Amino acid sequence: xxxxxxxxxxxxxxxxxxxxxxxxxxxxxxxxxxxxxxxxxxxxxxxxxxxxxxxxxxxxxxxxxxxxxxxxxxxxxxxxxxxxxxxxxxxxxxxxxxxxxxxxxxxxxxxxxx
Length: 114
Prior knowledge:
The chain has helices at 18-38, 88-102; strands at 2-11, 41-46, 54-59, 62-67, 75-85, 106-110. The chain is of the alpha+beta class. It is flat.
């Protein structure tokens, strides 16, 4: 069994209005429960906005800590799920369900062991 990271690509900007956000979150909770019931889910979390992030970056002989990632993008990782799946196709099946639930793109990436 391989382990995969399913990352949610969330657009920058304000969140959905409360009724729409609650509908999406209900769908996400349904997929999360389905993953749990199937025994594939290890972790499923949302992340705080990028403005709340800090970056530790090597700077010569010291480490410089700065605010936010400040990447030149229009989207950011809004959350992720860590799952077990027998192969990429099975992980993509879960990603399709999560994309339908969130209405957002889901990146699928295998975890390197070691």
